Amino acid sequence: MTAVPVPSPSEPRQLDAAVERLREGARAWARAPVAERIALARSLLAGTVRVRERLVAAACAAKGIPEGSPLAGDEWFGGPYVVVRMLRQLIGQLQRIERTGETELGPLYRTGDGRVATRVYPHGRLDAILFMGVKAEVHFEEGADEERVRSARASFYKQRQPREEVCLVLGAGNVNSIPATDVLTKMFGEGKACLLKVNPVNAYVGPFLEEAFADAIARGYLAVAYGGPEVGSYLTGHPGIDEVHITGSDRTHDLIVWGPPGPERAERMARGRPLLQKAISSELGNVTPILVVPGPYDERQLAWQAENVAGMVTQNASFNCIAAKLLVTPGGWKERGPFLAQLERFLGLVPPRRAWYPGAEHRFRDLTEGRRAVRRIGAPAPGTLPWTILPGLDPADREERAYRVEPFCSLLSEVSLGSNDPVEFLEQAVPFCNERVWGTLAATLVVHPATLRDPRTAAAVEEAVRRLRYGTVVLNLWPGVAFAMGTAPWGAAPGSPLTDIQSGRGFVHNTLMLEHVDKVVVRGPLVSPVKMPYFPSHRTADVLGRRLSALEEQGSLAALPGVLTAAFRA
Fold first, then answer.
1. What is d(CA 177, CA 85) in angstroms, rounded to the nearest whole number?
2. With bands split at pLDDT 50, 70 and 90, how would you rate the model's confidence at 67?
3. Using CA atoms, how far apart are residues 169 and 205, in angstroms rounded to an integer?
4. 491 DSSP β-pair partners
5. Residue 568 pLDDT class (50, 70, 90 cuts)
6. Which 3 state secondary structure label does DSSP give 120?
7. 331 three-class SS
8. How many Cβ atoms are within 10 Å of 495's Cβ, its own excluded?
9. For 391-512, where are the alpha helices, taking DSSP H only?
């Protein structure tokens, strides 16, 4: 593997000059006509297309993915595909704003608890063809009526005197599309100039972004900085920065907002006086639960969902804030043993991955040492970690760290509670996840179609969807599907205070520019007609990722045959 070049940390004088230029750019960007924004978005799209092959190659080298491996699909789907898709959607919505003053909004309807909701996926014919049976809806906050939902969307574009703001974006180090899509959200959705500080873990992404987004940089709407915590600290305290957005850990968030741990932090938190006197939005990770609702599953259905969960673990070497981390199974479920056996089989299809994210080995040891029941899958080479399951955790153990600590490594825990009755299971599983499991970002329910046809159990499932305190609740799929949609707002459940931030506050992506969002609900089939690209047995994920990225670039059916060929050869 060739070493990936990493830029040197930015010096204070460079940072000061960047902020000064962005202050000037923020004034122009806040007042830029929509036609200019459309032209810039098209330029950024063309730039992303120019660098995508080289960016994926650099990411594979950095993460130890062999050239030509299907695992390169991780870098296509976690990189250029999402960015290209979001830019194409933004161009379409900006064109709509130019014509009508509004972004697109589908029919509004009411959920079972009376909230206003709307469908946001599929968004066009391509989505309906590519992900057959997958649907997503947005549930709005309690009290937001139809008129408020309609009038509030794309609010930046309705301001007579828009604010001239500079947002510091502290980029994520794990998924390479996140820094770009966070910037796109702040620039085009909220009208802010951005200073992106690239995470040291994936600092190699920065030069590609500088090349792809060169027009935004040249106009003073965007700047890119490099370095570690000292650069981040300098910028968060900089008087020229109006707002901070971070995708990372809650520990980094609290360090920024409240200062270093100790008596002074505790006093600030008790008095409600944060050290950071600026607005902050964030996405901070999750102990992602997968709730397996009991039902009449056959062998094929169990195998498909076992591979579904395995893919949630193995994708990106499990360094995802929404990697499956806690499998919640029904107490007394007779299929538990076969399901876990299938899960181990599918995990074994992926050789142990390089533990490339800092601290992974320490977190792995911290959560596995001293346990009697640990299932390791695969023979790890030096520098890698085995796929590992911690089965049979005690649901009554208030000290269980696996419920409260995001592993951010190749580790999945399992707990059984409730009974084999779907209603009883959900009555225990939902409060367990809400109250005992850390994080509010996303959760998955595995649900059999027969369970949704029976009025009693269907009502229990819908109640669970409403009660789960997560920004995204998904049926039968990985929440990563929602992350990639673009039209679906992505973020934690609203309402976490700064003193207990959980998975963060605010939404990104959200190309429809919706406001007053409470949660996103995604529904998929128990067994999909085609294999999902994150499945461990997928043989053409790299080819599919490249072709889907080209399809999103064109936004037409012309590239569809090549995509379908790669999908059905999986």
1. 11
2. confident
3. 14
4. 507
5. confident
6. strand
7. coil
8. 11
9. 422-436, 449-453, 455-467, 480-485
